[in-house]
Specification:
The protein is an alpha/beta fold. The protein has a single domain, classed as Rossmann fold (3-Layer(aba) Sandwich). The strands form three sheets. It has a six-stranded mixed β-sheet with strand order 2-1-3-4-11-10. Strand 10 and strand 11 form a beta hairpin. The longest helix is centred in the C-terminal third of the chain and has 14 residues. The chain is globular.
């Protein structure tokens, strides 16, 4: 069975949209789980094979977007999360969830090193909160979540700290060398690159392709009626549903 844990609590606000996305994609069990229930062992990551960190403003983005929730996981659930990752289960972070994953140090997880931050997502270069639809160009990568995307994906962004930056040039070179960038902003210029991310990077995955994070919101474009131009017949070839279907189909085949 495909069992999905959608993290919630402390300002996460895209959990219902994310739950609907996985249900639409065919997951058998999709449950919203408060982070404290995992810490207090009222529930356990072991019960699931997909974990999602949705968008929102966890802990009001105090100390920087995603930082507090990342530390809450790092210091309370490190062993559980490590087992989850080593079992080759799937993890997805969107927007604030992406910020959590990079600041927790489970993305990009170069050379298999976990819980050591190598990249970050900082304030938008524009100095503004950006809310708009953008186009993402798919690239070759090992990412399980983005398999079979052939055309640009149109999805919305809504963030104030989405600028992808790296610790040093060597890390950026490794990310490109290992093809860990499933989507880039297309074109790589403002406003389509809404935050000034280096090289137009909108998402990254780890080397196995099991862990994936992106700033734009695929759960907000699952069908044509969610696209702002649907009534004018201008429907893009791709939407975000395939991301969730890819994950569900992978788990169903693997029976993890």
């Amino acid at each position: 069975m495909v069992k999905v844990c959608i993290l919630t609590g402390f300002g996460i606000n895209a959990d219902y949209e994310s739950k609907y996305a996985f249900e639409t994609a065919g997951a058998d069990i999709v449950k919203r789980v408060h982070v404290n229930d995992l810490i207090n062992k009222k529930d356990d990551l072991e019960n699931y094979n997909i974990l999602m960190f949705p968008g929102g403003f966890a802990f009001a983005d105090d100390l920087g977007s995603g930082r507090v929730l990342a530390n809450k996981f790092r210091y309370n659930l490190r062993e559980d999360l490590t087992k989850f990752i080593n079992a080759e289960k799937l993890i997805f972070g969107v927007c604030n969830g992406f910020q959590v994953l990079v600041k927790m140090g489970v993305l990009p997880e170069l050379e298999g090193v976990k819980f050591q931050q190598e990249v970050s997502l900082i304030g938008n270069a524009s100095g503004l909160f950006e809310g708009r639809w953008v186009q993402l160009k798919p690239l070759n990568s090992p990412c399980i979540w983005t398999k079979d995307y052939k055309h640009n994906l149109e999805v919305p962004v809504r963030h104030g700290e989405g600028q992808f930056v790296v610790k040093n040039k060597k890390i950026l070179e490794k990310i490109w060398e290992k093809e860990l960038v499933p989507f880039i902003y297309d074109p790589d210029e403002y406003p389509n690159n809404p935050n000034g991310s280096i090289n137009g990077i909108a998402s990254i995955c780890n080397e196995s392709g099991h862990i994936f994070g992106m700033m734009p919101h695929p759960e907000c474009h699952l069908n044509k009626y969610q696209h702002p131009k649907w009534s004018r017949g201008k429907i893009p070839a791709e939407n975000g549903l395939k991301i969730f279907k890819n994950a569900v189909e992978y788990i169903r085949k693997k029976q993890i």
